[in-house]
Amino acid sequence: MPTYTAPVKDMQFLLHEVLEVTKSDVPGYDELEPDFTSAVLEEAGKLASDVLAPLNPVGDREGCKLENGVVRTPTGFKEAYEQVREGGWMGLDCDPEYGGQGMPYILGTGVGEIFVSANMAFNMYQGLTHGAYSAIHAHASDELKAIYLPKMVEGIWSGTMNLTEPHCGTDLGQIRTRAEPQDDGSYKITGTKIFISAGDQDITGNVVHLVLAKAPGGGPGTKGISLFIVPKFLVNDDGSLGERNGVSVGNLEEKMGIHGNATCVMNYDEATGYLVGDLHKGMRNMFTMMNEARMGVGLQGYAQAEAAYQAAVDYARERLQGRAVTGPKNPDGPADPLIVHPDVRRMLLDQKSFVEGARAFTLWGAQLIDRSVRASDHDAEGLISLMTPVIKGFLTDKGFESTVLAQQVFGGHGYIEETG
Ligand SMILES: Cc1cc2nc3c(=O)[nH]c(=O)nc-3n(C[C@H](O)[C@H](O)[C@H](O)COP(=O)(O)OP(=O)(O)OC[C@H]3O[C@@H](n4cnc5c(N)ncnc54)[C@H](O)[C@@H]3O)c2cc1C
To answer: What element of type H or E holds 191?
Structure first.
């Protein structure tokens, strides 16, 4: 089974030689001294190699199970999540006002790559929580922020993103989930969402669903959509957990991969929801989470390519097949390692150059996000808005090609599960 080593040297090169983060005028970047960033990335790398990567095949084999309405995650996920949570990784780049460490997003992005390469399915539980945190932080009332954010930053409550419905994915103007206003200012949410990543699990005490729904009086299409917090358990005035809300998991999707992450059908049956931001302006507010998710998906594209590359290059150094065209490179052995063959080298170098470029592109994008959020730079905000779909689309398309090249380096063994 392949192992994973965090590419800390390459990340440090990008942060300090290419992006020169400590020379930047973005508030908080002065803290990103090389010793500090390398210590953080090394520590994340240890957790990734020792705890998360070994759970990746377990998650893939076991998958998630729906038992009596509750999703059971694979063996070891709960304990690993606790280690990540206790290490303070969830709140690394979150607002100190809500218990976060206030580090720049660019550092969280580097750590995110490491965790995603080691175990993407596992990391999605906290990735979705971070996205929900960001949308609530940017758009919710102070009251809602005070109730939900500290628990999400601490990692004891998780978050989800509920856009997709059975009849609509890309064209969200068609959504049918309804929100009926109540006298106390809350809403009753009714409808069905599908494909909800991390929609439920047995890891956190509560799940904070961010749900798009149509409230009366909105215009047609996406104009009439509003955004709501719908917690799995209602929250009492003192912050403790109250009654179960009217939201349940209808089913788990059987997928071709990422089995360790529960992709849920979510049924909302007059569930209590709380408006986030302005009524009928939900799409704009949800875009905070969607954009973060899109950056995260682009990152997943190259982080998977990095993991596949590491496995392929190790294999190419060990597997002995044929002789180099320029004469034996391993004369005492029965054959030379695969890595001597020009076409194998081409495949490996294609992967390596893609991953290095993709990482540079993503960290550059993360720097723009920091500049737009921390320095209120509207040009940076405009540029990253333009580039976010490019990061998602390009890095996932190319990342897929790159992992297929990695598979080719293994020959027939690339099609065998045991190889990874
Ligand atoms: C593993 C997984 C996890 C997911 N997690 C979540 C989640 O957490 N929350 C959530 O809400 N959703 C989630 N989704 C759903 C995902 O966001 C949708 O699948 C996506 O939005 C596309 O919608 P669709 O599948 O209905 O495809 P459709 O909208 O039916 O599109 C089908 C195809 O047509 C193309 N197409 C559609 N409209 C146009 C157009 N106008 N012009 C050109 N091409 C077009 C699309 O690009 C696509 O290739 C997840 C999906 C998967 C597979």
So the answer is: strand 187-197
